[in-house]
Specification:
This protein is α+β, with helices and mostly antiparallel strands and 342 residues long. 44% of the residues lie in helices and 13% in strands.
Length: 342
């Protein structure tokens, strides 16, 4: 169909950041991860549903939960969780998590779970990422020279990204320069049976990253706030999967990555079996807090200045959403704001 200038243009679903100089907050990775349980079944409703499921085979009318006591319903759930009753009802208990303050390395680990789960995550090709926060690991921050290189590389990548977009390069092509340390989020909708399977694998020391261990711990905590009776089940699943112990004890096994020595000495090994002679925590954690630092383009600025520029850009974003300026017009207005705040 031909272009029709008489039609009012549609508004974009994302911010148009042409001309904006990247704002970057560098923050502590370990303290950034946040798992929120944002959707779940009411505990009473959950017990009714699982009880009806497990008793359906023998029921006359499918209303067994209306005649059962709460202890009976809890016992039925316990039987399913222990494998003494068919566990189909566990697949009816659903949780939706928002997992934020993580990198796309983390989201790629999470989405390796493919059965009994649905994902939706922040995209890199349908929005502009000029101002995404950068995550810093403690082991990187402990050395000033390493941290300085880390910051400069991140800043350069983000500035190149912004420059390419301002030169007319598609955001889907420009994103190829972005580093892996930018903060993002993912939604994960999962049933209880799959969650316990996911948890048992990802809480294990054999999971390569501390990030996936931390995400699993926070998932457990969020669920047990709502369903305290499930704590015992999570505790059992903490030790139900022993990948590192099983793979490591097999001296002929070359089908697993052995990066770190095990946290617990459960079998005989040679330190040369591992890439590093330290545990995962010893390699990554220093327990020294990382102070937030703020950059506007390649210049370090105060938190006050950072927020001042951020507010000005956000006000421009609002104006852009209310008008139908061209990309070049938006860029010129952003450059004017930048000049005013330098």
């Amino acid at each position: 169909m031909p272009n029709n200038p008489k039609l009012e243009p549609k508004h974009h679903s994302f911010r148009l950041l042409f001309g904006q100089r990247p704002l970057t907050k560098f923050t502590d990775y370990r303290r950034s991860i946040k798992v929120d349980l944002i959707k779940y079944d009411d505990p009473e409703t959950m017990l009714d549903g699982t009880f009806n499921f497990v008793k359906a085979t023998w029921s006359e009318d499918g209303r067994e939960s209306e005649r059962a006591s709460k202890p009976e319903k809890k016992e039925a759930l316990k039987q399913m969780l222990s494998g003494k009753a068919l566990g189909l009802g566990l697949e009816t208990v659903n949780f939706m998590f928002r997992i934020s303050g993580i990198s796309r390395i983390d989201t790629h680990q999470i989405v390796r779970q493919r059965i009994g789960v649905t994902f939706s995550q922040q995209c890199t090709g349908d929005r502009m990422l000029h101002h995404n926060t950068a995550l810093v690991e403690e082991c990187i921050a402990q050395d000033d020279k390493t941290l300085d290189s880390f910051i400069k590389s991140t800043i350069m990548s983000k500035q190149t990204y912004a420059d390419m977009i301002d030169r007319g390069i598609s955001i889907q092509a420009a994103r190829s320069i972005l580093p892996h340390n930018l903060s993002t989020f993912i939604f994960m909708n999962v049933n209880l049976m799959t969650l316990l399977f996911f948890y048992s694998k990802r809480i294990d020391d054999g999971s390569q990253t501390w990030q996936i261990n931390e995400i699993s711990r926070q998932m457990e905590a969020e669920v047990c706030k709502i369903y305290p009776d499930l704590q015992e089940v999570f505790d059992k699943h903490k030790t139900s999967f022993k990948f590192q112990a099983k793979a490591g004890a097999d001296m002929k096994n070359t089908f697993s990555t052995s990066l770190y020595k095990p946290k617990v000495d459960e079998y005989d090994y040679n330190l040369r079996d591992f890439l590093y002679d330290k545990t995962k925590e010893e390699m990554h954690f220093t327990d020294l807090p990382i102070e937030d630092t703020f950059y506007w383009g390649d210049k370090q600025v105060s938190k006050v200045k950072f927020n001042e520029v951020k507010k000005a850009y956000e006000e421009l974003d609002q104006q852009v959403s209310e008008n139908h300026w061209s990309n070049d017009e938006i860029k010129l207005k952003a450059i004017t704001i930048t000049n005013q705040h330098e």
